[in-house]
Amino acid sequence: MTEEFDRLVEQFERFQENTRRAESRLADYDGMRERIADLEATAHSPGRDVTVTAGPGGSVKNIEFTDRALQQSPQALSATVMATLRTAVAAAARQQAAVVQEFVGDDMNVLDQVLQTQSEMLGVPVDQLTADLPGSAPPRSEYLRGLYNEDDL
């Protein structure tokens, strides 16, 4: 009877440990969602006449124009807005991928995939794309550490 009881106790302890791990992961994902909801990326047009702030999921949070921007033709202003918008949204996507990468670990190279895709689509080297990733808060995962210079850490 004690052998059966010991087996049941062991199964119950494993169940409790699995429950604790699941609760911990859920708390981590809540933290990830909060960080993603708070992220912003701001881009400026080359002449700094147009400023666009983008958030997670490609959301546009703000667009600002200088008086000089409004002196452009509608077609030129539209092209400037669209180029600046694409830059801000791409930067926000990289930030979002960096947050996700931090939480999923090195098993899934989410950030690497985003960086590679954007590099190919934008014709910009990956090193240049990582420049706008947050350097003030060093990444926790070893995968992300490789994307930063030691001075940034």
Helix run count? 5
Give the radius of gyration: 22 Å
Largest sheet: 3 strands, antiparallel
Query: What are the secondary-structure elements, in order, as H or E?
Result: HEEEHHHH
Number of domains: 2
Estimate the strand proportion. 5-15%
Contiguous low-pLDDT stretches (5 residues minimum) are 136-153
Q: What percent of residues adopt helix (DSSP H or I)?
A: 55-70%
Structural class: mainly alpha
Indicate the overall shape.
elongated
Measured between the Cα atoms of the first and last residue, the distance is 58 Å
Mean pLDDT: 79
Across the major sheet, the strand order is 1-2-3
Tell me the number of strands. Answer: 3
Could you characterize the architecture of this molecule?
The chain has two domains: 1-38; 39-152, no CATH class. It contains five helices and three strands. The protein has helices at 2-38, 74-104, 110-122, 126-129, 142-145; strands spanning 41-44, 50-54, 60-65. A three-stranded antiparallel beta sheet has the order 1-2-3. A hairpin with a 5-residue loop joins strand 1 and strand 2. Helix 1 runs antiparallel to helix 2 (74-104) and helix 2 packs antiparallel against helix 3 (110-122). The protein starts with a helix and ends in an 8-residue tail after the last helix. Mean pLDDT is 79; it is low at 136-153.
Compact summary:
One of its GO terms (molecular function) is DNA binding. By secondary structure, the protein is mainly alpha-helical. It has helices spanning 2-38, 74-104, 110-122, 126-129, 142-145, and strands at residues 41-44, 50-54, 60-65.
